[in-house]
Every structure is written in C-alpha cells, then in structure tokens.
Amino acid sequence: MAVANGWPDEKSTDQWDNLRKQARKLESELDDKLVAYRKIASGPEDSKDGTEACIKDLLKSLQHVNTQMQAWVSNGGSHVLSHTLARHKDILHELTQEFARINTRAKANLEHAKLLETFGRSNKKKDPENGQNGDSSEQALLRESANISRTSGQLDSVIGQVRATLSDLNIQRSVFGDANSKLGLIQSSLPTVNSILASIRRKKSLDNIILAIVTFQPVLMFQILIEGQQCGRFSPCKGQAKEPDDPRTRSDEYWSKVAEEPGMSLEKLSLFMT
Q1: What is the mean pLDDT of residues 250-264?
Q2: pTM of the predicted model, to two decimals?
Q3: Where are the transmembrane segments (predicted)?
C-alpha cells in the first residue's frame, strides 16, 4: 500500500472506502434485525423464524470486515483511519452485547411461559372442580408477564434510540477528527512557507540595495567630473590664488602666492604683472 505523508494513494483509498461501505451496510442491517428480534423476544412464544441465525451470520460478516480494516490500517494507515476503525469496533461490540441481552431475555420469557403453562396445568389437576379460579390466577400472571414484556420493549426502544444517537455522535467525531488532522497538516506547513517568504523578502531588499548603489555610482562620478571641470576652467582650486579680473587690482599677497606656484619663473611673473 502506497502512502505519502500519512495519506494513502487513490487506489488504496478506494479499497478503504469499500470496506467502510460494507461495514456500514452490515451495521444498518444488524440494527434492523435487532429491532425485529427484540419485538419477537418480548413475547412468551418461541422465535423460530431464523432471525437469531441471521443476526449471528451478520455479526460474523461484520467481524470479518473489521479484521480486513485492521490489516489495512496496520500496513500504513493514518492516525485518523485508526480512529475510524476503533469506532467500527465499538459499534460491533455494542451490537454483540445488544444481541446477547435480547437473546437472554427471549430465553427467560420462554422459560417463564413454560413455567406458567406447567403451573396452570398442575393447578387444574389439583382442583378440577374450581377450574375457573385456576384460570383466573393464570390469566393474572399472564397479564403481569405481558406488562413486564411491554415495559421491557419500551426500554429496548429507548436504548435503541440512544444507540442511534451515539452512532451519529461518533460519525460527527470522526468528521471533526479528519478536519483537525487536515488543519494540523496546514499548520505544520506554515513555518516552511513563512521561511520561504522571509528569504524572498531578504533577497528583494538586497537586490534593491545593490540596484541603488549601481544607479548612484555613475551619478556620483558624473558629479565629481563636472565639479573638476568647473574647478579647472572657472575658479581656482584649493591652494591656488584667485586671479582678479583687473591686473592692477591684484594685491601683493596674490602675487606672492603666484610666485610660489611650481614652474613659475621671473619672466612669467613679470608677464603676469604687466
């Protein structure tokens, strides 16, 4: 059986679904048969219509399906499927116990009816002249037995309703368990997704910084070049004397700085001063 991340593949899922359908069908048939058997067992007569044998066969079939589901889960089923199998086992156990209770009650009713019949016969034999009183006592006992049987049947009906409600609650619990498992898988994958998104954001920020540096570098070089050209053409650079527009307004300090410049001779200095 192929399993990936705790979830079976499509073919294995179909096999599991078929087993679950068989189990649900058998459980539904057993519920119907037990209701019919409960009505039969409530009376004093012996039930020989084959209902008891049919219920036994259905219980064996359901046990076989549960065994197959157990083998399927043991070969790599998920935790959720284990909960589903446990629920089906609980239902099988409850159905088996219910059948045992009804069967015991049916046998008790049959024995009770036989005792009443034996008591009535012996009473008639002991008092043949007062048969009316004997019949009256027997009828009273039969009425009491019928009342007890009706009460027992009503209790069985209430128990059946409670079992049906419990089955619905188990189904809802299984659905919520599946939902919680899927939410757990999503939550377990969220840290990985957050880590990937954080890495993408860091890389994007780094790319923006590199792009800003690459874009600003030519602008800076161009600005430096422009300032250098302006310094050479229009204004003296740092350490050079500023030449006045009119040579006659040049001060002695200016001529002393010009004389200190490298390569300046007396001939050049005299030419500048004229």
Answers
A1: 61
A2: 0.42
A3: none
Q: What angle do helix axes 79-126 and 131-233 make, rounded to 10 degrees?
A: 170
Residue type, 199: S
Angle at 54 between CA 48 and CA 59, to 5 degrees: 135
Q: CA-to-CA distance for 1 and 90, rounded, in angstroms?
A: 26
- 270 vs 274: CA distance, rounded Å: 6
- 87 to each of 29, 35, 93, 159, 222, how far by Cα in Å? 17, 21, 10, 19, 80
DSSP 42: T
Cα separation values, 111 from 105, 114, 115, 248, 263, Å:
10, 5, 6, 150, 143
Q: How far is CA 147 from CA 136, 140, 184, 253, in A?
A: 17, 11, 55, 139
C-beta of residue 19 within 8 angstroms of C-beta of residue 93: no
Structure tokens at 46: 């012996």
Encoded amino acid at 186, one letter: I
What letter would DSSP give residue 214?
H
